[in-house]
Amino acid sequence: VETVQMVFVVIGASMGALGLMILFVGCLATGATRTKVYRAWGARVGGRISCAVFLGITYVLQVAWLLMLCFLVIVTLIFTIFWALCSNPQVQANRQCIDFRQFSFMFPNNTRPEDMEVCDTHELKLFCKDYVERAEIMFILATVACLLVILSLVHYLMCLSANYAHIRDHEKFQELQDLQCLQEPELSMGGSKDRF
Fold first, then answer.
1. pLDDT for 65-99, tens place per residue?
2. Which pTM does this prediction carry?
3. Which residue ranges run through the membrane (predicted)?
4. Are 80 and 143 in contact (CB under 8 A)?
């Protein structure tokens, strides 16, 4: 259990660090900051490369989080079924056992049929209260959090791809704006507004 916890801590810390880097690149590649930071040719190339690298990383993370969501949905569904079994009034009154014999294909071949039933009051408390109820709440929260991460990654992919296009086409926009200022000198006298 300690190893699994350590793996989750490392994954969480890496996602946090990656989130900060993504925020930094996003701030540099957005709006007025983009026009100031990526003004020179070399800076634009570096900006395009960093945007492309983070687009690739974010895309891979998106696929990984989608796989995690699929896993969490399946596990949450299973624990919801278990929770419904535990919520049965007959089971709560200790008049009926929770029978897992219909799922015998999931157990090892040498499992006895009586081991596939949860009947004793202590076993029911252990299974329902201590295991299923706590795990169900955690899996529901994890599924909701996973959905939020996926939505934020999709949003970031959209923003970063738009910023990549703006950085790539900045020189064309600048030439177009200069050409427009040359053709309409009365607008250039009043001061140019950088719309891109």
1. 999 999 999 999 988 988 888 887 877 777 677 77
2. 0.70
3. 6-29, 65-86, 137-158
4. no
